[in-house]
C-alpha cells in the first residue's frame, strides 16, 4: 500500500487536496491534557496526518478514565497517559512523529513545553492551565482551540491571538477555586466529550489549512442535540491580548502542588534542575516494599498512600487530599 493511500479519503475533498495534506504533515500540534477531550482530538489529528504531535499530560491512567478517554484500555492503568497515548497513536499512524511529555504545565515551564508549536489543543480540566496557554499563545503568536465539557454540555472556541477574542476576552476573570463543577462532582457523558473533542479537532484542522477563524463559541447540548454558535467579541481593554499582561507565565512558585480532578490525589512537583535519579530512588524504596516500573515511572505504597514518581521528580500521591500531608509524604519517602 502506498503511503499516499492512507489519506485518500480526505485529500479527495477539495477543501483539503494534496496541498492541504502537506500543510497538515508539516504542522506541529501540542495536545495539552489527555483526558476525555484530548484523547479524542489527538486520535483524530494523528489519523488525519498532522506530522508532529506533542502529547502533554501530568497524570496516569485510572479505571474511571476508561468510560470516555478513548485512547486507553485496561492494560494502560497506572501508566503515564502521555506515554500510553503515544503508543496507541503510533500504532495507528507510524508515519508521524509523536512526542510524549509526562509533565505538569505551569508558569515556569509552559514556554519551553510549548516551544515550536503551530497550534495547541486544550484538553485540560482547569482554568489556570487555560489562562496560561492563552498567555503563551499571545506571546508566541500561535492559535489554540479551547474545549470544555461537563455533564451533558460542552463548548469549543478557536482562538487566534489579535484576530479573534482570546480566552480572557471570553472569560475576563479566573473563577475562584472550587467555584466550578468538576467532572467528579457533575459527571460527564462520553458522547458529549467525544463531540467536543471532534469539534476541537475540526477547528484545528481548518486553522492549519489556513482557513480564517469564525470567532464563534460552539456550544453543544447533548440531551437536546443542539449546537449553538455564539459570536465572541474582542475586548478593547483585555488585559491579556490588548495590554499584553501575563499573570501566570513566568510566575515563580516555590513548589507546585495541585489537587487533581479525580480527588484524593495530590501532584507534588519540587523545583529542581534536570532529571532525578529514579533508579536510586527505586533502590532505596525496595528496602521498604515492592516497587513497580511502568514506562518511565515507578509506583510504590508507603505511609498509607500510593506514589507514582515521574522521571522529572514530580509525584502523584494518591490517598490524601491534604497538600501538606502530600508534601510531608514526599519528603519522607522520595526526599526533597
Ligand atoms: Zn483578549
Give me some keywords for this one.
336 residues; alpha/beta; eight-stranded mixed sheet; six-stranded antiparallel sheet; 11 helices; 14 strands; 22% strand; binds zinc ion
Give a quick summary of the entry.
The chain has 336 residues and is an alpha/beta fold. It has 11 helices and 14 strands. Residues 165-166, 168-169, 235, 238, 240-241 line the site of zinc ion (ZN).
β-strand amount: 15-25%
Class per helix and strand makeup: alpha/beta
The helicity comes to 25-40%
Order of helices and strands: HHEHEHEHEHEEHHHEEEEHEEEEH
For the termini, the CA-CA separation is 53 Å
What do the pLDDT scores average to? 90
Which ligands are bound? zinc ion
What can you tell me about this protein's structure?
This protein is an alpha/beta fold. Helix content is 31%, strand content 22%. The chain has eleven helices and 14 strands. The strands form two sheets. It has an eight-stranded mixed β-sheet, with helices on both faces. Strand 1, helix 3 and strand 2 form a beta-alpha-beta unit. Helix 3 packs parallel to helix 4 and helix 3 crosses helix 9. The longest helix is centred in the middle third of the chain and has 20 residues. The mean pLDDT is 90. Bound molecules: zinc ion. Zinc ion binds next to helix 7. Zinc ion (ZN) binds next to helix 7.
Amino acid at each position: 500500500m502506498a503511503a499516499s493511500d492512507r489519506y485518500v479519503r480526505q485529500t479527495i475533498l477539495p477543501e483539503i487536496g494534496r496541498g492541504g495534506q502537506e500543510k497538515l504533515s508539516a504542522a506541529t500540534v501540542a495536545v495539552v491534557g489527555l483526558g476525555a477531550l484530548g484523547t479524542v482530538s489527538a486520535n483524530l489529528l494523528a489519523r488525519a496526518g498532522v506530522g508532529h504531535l506533542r502529547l502533554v499530560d501530568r497524570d496516569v491512567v485510572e479505571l474511571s478514565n476508561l468510560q470516555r478517554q478513548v485512547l486507553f484500555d485496561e492494560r494502560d492503568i497506572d501508566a503515564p497517559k502521555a506515554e500510553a497515548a503515544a503508543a496507541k497513536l503510533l500504532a495507528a499512524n507510524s508515519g508521524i512523529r509523536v512526542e510524549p511529555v509526562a509533565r505538569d504545565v505551569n508558569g515556569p515551564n509552559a514556554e519551553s513545553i510549548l516551544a515550536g508549536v503551530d497550534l495547541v489543543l486544550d484538553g485540560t480540566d482547569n482554568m489556570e492551565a487555560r489562562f496560561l496557554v492563552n498567555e503563551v499563545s499571545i506571546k508566541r503568536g500561535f492559535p489554540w482551540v479551547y474545549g470544555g465539557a461537563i455533564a451533558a454540555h460542552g463548548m469549543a472556541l478557536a482562538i487566534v491571538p489579535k484576530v479573534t477574542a482570546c480566552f480572557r476576552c471570553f472569560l475576563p476573570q479566573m473563577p475562584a477555586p472550587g467555584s466550578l463543577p468538576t467532572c467528579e462532582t457533575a459527571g460527564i457523558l462520553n458522547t458529549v466529550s467525544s463531540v467536543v473533542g471532534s469539534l476541537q479537532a475540526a477547528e484545528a484542522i481548518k486553522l492549519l489549512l489556513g482557513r480564517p477563524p469564525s470567532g464563534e463559541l460552539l456550544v453543544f447540548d447533548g440531551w437536546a442535540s443542539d449546537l449553538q454558535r455564539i459570536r465572541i467579541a474582542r475586548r478593547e481593554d483585555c488585559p491579556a491580548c490588548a495590554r499584553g499582561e501575563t499573570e501566570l507565565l513566568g510566575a515563580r512558585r516555590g513548589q507546585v502542588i495541585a489537587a487533581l480532578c479525580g480527588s484524593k490525589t495530590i501532584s507534588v512537583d519540587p523545583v529542581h534542575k534536570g532529571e532525578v535519579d529514579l533508579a536510586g530512588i527505586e533502590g532505596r524504596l525496595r528496602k521498604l516494599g515492592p516497587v513497580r516500573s511502568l514506562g518511565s515511572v515507578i509506583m510504590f505504597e508507603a505511609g498509607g498512600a500510593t506514589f507514582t514518581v515521574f522521571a522529572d521528580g514530580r509525584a502523584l500521591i494518591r490517598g490524601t487530599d491534604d497538600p501538606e500531608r502530600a508534601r510531608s509524604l514526599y519528603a519522607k519517602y522520595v526526599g526533597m
